[in-house]
Design a protein that fits this description.
This protein is an alpha+beta fold. It is about 40% helix and about 10% strand. It folds into two domains: about 55 residues; about 140 residues, no CATH class.
Length: about 260
C-alpha cells in the first residue's frame, strides 16, 4: 500500500529544510543544525515511526478525498435517506446490504492488526467487515425507532399495554426488549467511537436569518471526505457471494475471550 505522509510531516520537512538554509552562512560555510532543527528532526522521525505503526485496513489503497457540501436535513434540504417510505428503506439498505461481509486474500489478512478467520474449506478467503458498513447498519436501526408504526420493535412493544400485545408477543416481549436494548446500545456506542475516531473538524457557520430575526447555525458546510463511492465499490468487489455459517468452527480461527463480554461466575 502506498502510504501518503500526513500534512504535518511534510510541513515539518519543509520547515526543517528552511531552518537548515537559514543556518548556513553567507560565506559558504557548511550548514549547521540549530537546537530547533534537531528537535524538528526528532519529531519527524517519531512521526514516521507512528505512521508505520498505524493499523492497516484492506481498503486503504482505494482511499481518495473530495470536498462535499453537507445537506442540513431540514425543511427543503432533505435527502433520499429521510422519512419512512419503502423507497427510503431501500436507499438505506443499498448503502451496506451487499457489502455486509467481505473476502480478502491471505496476504491482506496477514497485515491485519486483529486476526480473522478464513472460510470453512477455503483457506484462501478470509472474512472481514468494513466498520463503515456495520455503522450504517446500526444507524439504520436507530433511524427506524423514529417510525414505530412502520418498523415495530421490542422497544416499542415494551411501552404498549398488555392487552395490545398478542400472547406470543407478551411472553417474549421482556427477553426481546433486553436483547434489543443490548443491540442498540452496542450500535450507538460504536457510532460514538467512530465519530470521535474520525473527529471531523469542518467548521459549521452562523448566519443572520431575516425571517427568524436571529443568528442561526448552518450545518450545510463544506467537508473534506473520503470518496464514499470508492469505498462502496471496494465492498461490492469483495463481497462474499456465498453463505458464511458462523456456527462452524474453522481450524486456526482466532478464539475470543468471552470473559470480556460475559460474566460466567
Amino acid at each position: 500500500m502506498a502510504w501518503k505522509s500526513p500534512p504535518k510531516a511534510s510541513d515539518e520537512e519543509r520547515l526543517l529544510q528552511q531552518t537548515d538554509e537559514e543556518d548556513s552562512s553567507s560565506f559558504g560555510e557548511p550548514p549547521r543544525h540549530s537546537g530547533s532543527s534537531i528537535w524538528l528532526w526528532l519529531s519527524l522521525t517519531l512521526n514516521a515511526t507512528l505512521v508505520g505503526a498505524l493499523a492497516i485496513a484492506p481498503a486503504d489503497d482505494v482511499i481518495s478525498y473530495k470536498t462535499v457540501v453537507f445537506h442540513s436535513g431540514i425543511h427543503l434540504d432533505k435527502t433520499e435517506y429521510q422519512g419512512s417510505s419503502d423507497e427510503v428503506n431501500v436507499n438505506w439498505e443499498a448503502l451496506y446490504n451487499n457489502m455486509s461481509l467481505s473476502l480478502i486474500s491471505p496476504s491482506s489478512a496477514s497485515k491485519l492488526i486483529n486476526k480473522t478467520t478464513h472460510l470453512s474449506g477455503d483457506p484462501q478467503s478470509y472474512v472481514i467487515q468494513l466498520a463503515v458498513f456495520h455503522n450504517l447498519h446500526c444507524l439504520n436501526m436507530v433511524r427506524k425507532l423514529l417510525y414505530p408504526s412502520k418498523y415495530p420493535s421490542p422497544i416499542h412493544l415494551s411501552h404498549s399495554q398488555p392487552h395490545e400485545r398478542s400472547q406470543h408477543e407478551h411472553s417474549h416481549s421482556q427477553t426481546s426488549y433486553e436483547e434489543e436494548v443490548i443491540h442498540l446500545e452496542h450500535c450507538i456506542e460504536g457510532i460514538r467511537q467512530s465519530l470521535q475516531c474520525s473527529a471531523d473538524t469542518s467548521a459549521l457557520f452562523w448566519e443572520w436569518s431575516e425571517r427568524r430575526q436571529m443568528m442561526v447555525g448552518n450545518t450545510g458546510t463544506t467537508h473534506t471526505c473520503r470518496d464514499w463511492e470508492k469505498v462502496r465499490e471496494w465492498g461490492l468487489g469483495h463481497q462474499t457471494g456465498i453463505y458464511f455459517d458462523p456456527y462452524v468452527k474453522v481450524e486456526g480461527a482466532p478464539v475470543r475471550d468471552d470473559s470480556i463480554e460475559f460474566d460466567d461466575a
